[in-house]
Please model this.
Amino acid sequence: MTATPKSAADKLKEQMALPLIAAPMFLISNPELALATCKEGVVGSFPALNQRTAADFEKWLVEMNDGIAELKKNNPDKKIAPYAVNLIVHKTNPRLEEDLDLIVKHKVPVIITSLGAVSDLVDKVHSYGGIVLHDVTNVEHAKKAIAAGVDGIIAVSAGAGGHAGTMNPMALLHDIREVFDGIVVLAGGMTTGSDILAAEVMGADFAYMGTRFICTAESAAEPAYKQMIIDAKATDIVYTSAVSGIPANFLKPSLEKAGFDAETLKKEGATAAKLKPIMNEAAAWKTIWSAGQGVVNIDDTPTVAALIDRLKQEHDAAEQKVIARKAAKPAGPKP
Ligand SMILES: Cc1cc2nc3c(=O)[nH]c(=O)nc-3n(C[C@H](O)[C@H](O)[C@H](O)COP(=O)(O)O)c2cc1C
Model:
């Protein structure tokens, strides 16, 4: 009897201790954060553009490959997860070709593409055994990425940090599952182990968390940014395109500090596309801090190891709770 071939999701899960990917974040994630994450069996990541030059980006890739090899050598009984690099596939990214060549040279295991999904890129990543996950906010973009041959779709729902979508996570996931049986990752507002289980139950293979990882000891966010997240309520997140021209979620107090009328922006939402961006992209993200609605449930800055340990415990406890509920159900009427 021939064994059923393993799915791409199963192959990735085998290398992980929890079905979670720590999302790439502009100006926040770096090899220190990514290696701490991979060490605990969760995929860690960073955007290529968090380094100013391709030469410096290459240094990070060497640091990651050496770091992962070292972790595997020193922790033979632990699952050390692969790492991911985020590439902005858009004509405004002048480094795309150069960065992609470095990715192929250093065989980066997981590539997360944003904006464009191109079959050339997918072929190059497949040539050395890597996989491509593409992030989308709606099924139309997912269909284009699937046609380009990506291995997985990251469904970014309403309330996510960064360039979020506007769709309810359940509806978005159903929309994507209807057309795709590859890897699906769900993003937006998740902060706990039970959130990860909920994503799995809904049909996702992995959960994706950004904002939760800003508040870790290893993240590059400045202390005031972490504190603002701890102090924020979900209603302090403003979805607006006024900052960079593309709608994204930002912390209300940081918008106010930068001179924006946050209440007006909140009312206008994505229609604030009419407003002119006030500064360039990098300056905007440095001064105006992005976060998702998951801030409601973040009130500490643990180490990555402590956070992931807690997420694993919460995930297992939630699973046990569901099993116990099922076992406790009274038997139905006898026939
Ligand atoms: C500060 C910040 C910066 C981000 N930068 C990027 C980025 O450079 N590239 C990218 O693909 N996504 C970026 N994102 C989006 C995340 O990768 C992810 O989709 C999102 O954080 C998930 O939602 P959550 O924050 O509610 O967990 C960013 C998010 C935040 C909060």
In short: The pocket of flavin mononucleotide is lined by residues 23-26, 28, 47, 86, 112, 114, 135, 156, 160-162, 187-190, 208-211, 290-292, 294 (CB under 6 Å).
